Amino acid sequence: MNSQTNATEQARQWLASFDEILTSGEPERAADLFEQNGYWRDLVAMTWNLKTLEGRPAIRHMIRQTAPHIQPGNWQLSEPATEQDGVIEAWLTFETRDARGKGHLRLRDGQAWTLLTTMQELKDFPEKRKFRRPKGAQHGASKTRQTWLEARQQEERELGYSQQPYCVIIGGGQGGIGLAARLRQLDVPTIVIERNPTPGDSWRNRYKSLCLHDPVWYDHMPYLPFPDHWPVFAPKDKIGDWLEMYTKVMELNYWSSTECLGARYDEQKGEWAVEVIRDGQPVTLKPRQLVLATGMSGIPNIPDIPGMDSFEGEQHHSSRHPGAEAYRGKKCVVLGANNSAHDICAALWENDADVTMIQRSPTHIIKSDTLMERVLGGLYSEEAVANGMTTEKADLTFASIPFRIMPEFHIPVYQQVAEQDADFYQRLRDAGFMLDFGDDGSGLFMKYLRRGSGYYIDVGASELVAQGEIKLKSRTSIARINPRSVTLTDGSELPADLIVYATGFGSMNGWAARIISQDVADKVGKCWGMGSDTTKDPGPWEGELRNMWKPTQQDALWFHGGNLHQSRHYSLYLALQLKARQEGLDTPVYGLQEVHHLA
Question: Mind listing the UniProt keywords for this protein, alphabetically (predicted)?
Answer without folding.
Answer: Oxidoreductase
